[in-house]
Amino acid sequence: MSVTAAHGFRAAGITAGLKASGTPDLALVVNDGPEHTAAAVFTSNRVVGAPVMWSRQAVKDGVARAVVLNSGGANVCTGPGGFQDAHATAEKVADELGIGAIDVLVGSTGLIGVRLAADKLLAGVPVAVGALSADDAGGQAAATAIMTTDTVPKTAVRTVGTSQGGSFTVGGMAKGAGMLAPALATMLCVITTDAVVDAATADAALRAATRVTFDRVDSDGAMSTSDTVVLMASGASRVTPDLDALTEAVTAICADLARQLVADAEGASHDIAITVTNATSEDAALAVARAVSRSNLVKAAVFGNDPNWGRILSQVGTVPEAVAPFDPAELDVSVNGVMVCKAGGAHEPPEKVDMAAARDVTFTIDLHAGDAEITLWTNDLTHDYVHENSAYSS
Amino acid sequence: MSVTAAHGFRAAGITAGLKASGTPDLALVVNDGPEHTAAAVFTSNRVVGAPVMWSRQAVKDGVARAVVLNSGGANVCTGPGGFQDAHATAEKVADELGIGAIDVLVGSTGLIGVRLAADKLLAGVPVAVGALSADDAGGQAAATAIMTTDTVPKTAVRTVGTSQGGSFTVGGMAKGAGMLAPALATMLCVITTDAVVDAATADAALRAATRVTFDRVDSDGAMSTSDTVVLMASGASRVTPDLDALTEAVTAICADLARQLVADAEGASHDIAITVTNATSEDAALAVARAVSRSNLVKAAVFGNDPNWGRILSQVGTVPEAVAPFDPAELDVSVNGVMVCKAGGAHEPPEKVDMAAARDVTFTIDLHAGDAEITLWTNDLTHDYVHENSAYSS
């Protein structure tokens, strides 16, 4: 179950031939309504792909009837020709579905700087339209077709009762395994719901959800050029949740998918949850967590199952006081619940920390400066990460 | 030749027994005058070692007669006891030399969070004093004793004639192979000169020199807690260079040592010079270069000898417009002189770039936005880097 779990949606995933591997590479998600509300958030990178340029414009009116996504090429840094390819893809989908191209969003992932095989992509569109299905298989096929170095498709579903009676469903799919960083982990993500939602509410719910989920995944510090998260609402449930209820459900889906991205990050052997407590603000806590998550020395130590709190403290100390006030002599650091550093110095012996037993590792950094708290997710730095990212272009 | 090349200095390097390896770990550099001018710059990390806390105070009057440095322990996050150890080390050196402790600077490098074997360190001081020598061997022994994961000692010397006649010499030594990042590469560095220099001139020359040398090395993005660069002037040459001449000579020594640090960075197989041209300001150029230097994807690609300009452009795009104005559609990128990206898109085929032939790799990123230019140095991300930094605590 994924994007087809909510009523009013069909999906497909097929092989258009964009990938040398011959695995599925073209996904289509269609909103059959009765409503066609849509919202989207995109990468904040200044270098963006043609699909992002197209979709930013197309979603501005708060309406979308379909999203077409391909792996096998990011269509980034491809000039006017690349933009034409994205536009032509939307037109082709629109023609096949009998809708307007401006209601078709486009997302692409793969290598930067290479033109797509547009003929194959366009020829694949009617095949995808023909394969559209409202059942589980359609959603699963779409989730599979957007994979690049992902080892598993990522999907999530929640059905939520409302205080007014009735229930609505939210489902989603995502891909992303490298270039996971703030202002959206690198990823394509489509979320569908059968709730009745107006465009402003959809936009507010999606922004609130991504801010505390995908924006708090920082696997390798590399912000993508193509990040796109789309929310489409069909209204088919006839249930109208309030903003809080919708936000909560969308956040749950985003959080679930975000954790799946971290769990499948390229070459990683550990998922690291960095919790910063007692900060003066959420932004302060995030800046500290971000500094720690960006340290190759910290990440390599985790790969070596070494609770090296000195490297953690050293990173915490790089955050300017204006950003995150704290007294270095008051910092506590726990790794997997063992307080290895207390008041800025050694405390429990590192030998008490078992990092080899599980994939999950937790850092808790207590700033003793306020009462704000956040958690950021990252991964360790491994031989496999270096291998995957040096052995071939991606 | 290193810190003893300039007249008026003696140095020693001995084994105090702080390192399990039994290799030299205690260095001493003494300024015999007639003058004892000193300046120093330290890490901007908020978590700093006891030696940095001590030396910041000790150098405030612009006078230092000796610097004592140890490897085998950073004396960071060691509390009041750690500060006492640093203080006691300065006192011991002062007693042995018949000077005041406030004229002795201290520098330490090694593991964070562990108290030094202070008894061994203090017992080593008289041995080091006894070994002091004004000849090459003394300078070389000191440069060797400060090594940690460095594979070779780093030294540099320049003798400079002045327009007024006469000449002065500047010599230096440095250590550092990991945690190389801005606001000083991680390192201990001592520079000596026999020029006649007042404290304000020494400070100005040292800050100007480090800003364009050590501050432009960003090997692995990890700012140390212990970075210290000391300049001592004996006046023994009786030659008084002006600020420009002194700055130029000190900058040459710092640049030479900084390049040696990059060349010996832990696990690296390539040195990468990132030159950003036609930026609106030096700060804008530096922000762009820094963003590229921090990308594990870029660094892993270099390890794989892959001129992956898409990853470079993606990093350039992460710099906010307010920091570095440029048009993404105008960006040119050359790797080893081959323009693989022109006007934001593919240009020369990547196959034309030979990265395997040499350790040095150059990126040139033309922003087409102004006329400022800088070069930042970094390294590639390799299996050996991950191995060195995961296999043991450091």
Describe the structure.
- Chains A, B: It is found in: Cytoplasm.
- Chains A, B: This is Arginine biosynthesis bifunctional protein ArgJ.
- Chains A, B: Substrate binds at residues 148, 175, 186, 266, 389, 394.
- Chains A, B: Heterotetramer of two alpha and two beta chains.
- Chain A has 394 residues and is an alpha+beta fold.
- Chain A folds into two domains: 9-263, 4-Layer Sandwich (L-amino peptidase D-ALA esterase/amidase); 271-390, Roll (Ubiquitin-like (UB roll)), CATH 3.10.20.340.
- Chain A contains ten helices and 15 strands.
- In chain A, the strands form three sheets. In chain A, strands 13-12-11-14-10-15 form a six-stranded mixed β-sheet.
- In chain A, helix 2 packs parallel to helix 3 (118-131) and helix 7 crosses helix 9 (309-316).
- The longest helix of chain A has 21 residues, at 243-263.
- Chain A starts with 8 loop residues before the first strand and ends with a helix.
- Mean pLDDT of chain A is 91; it is low at 179-185.
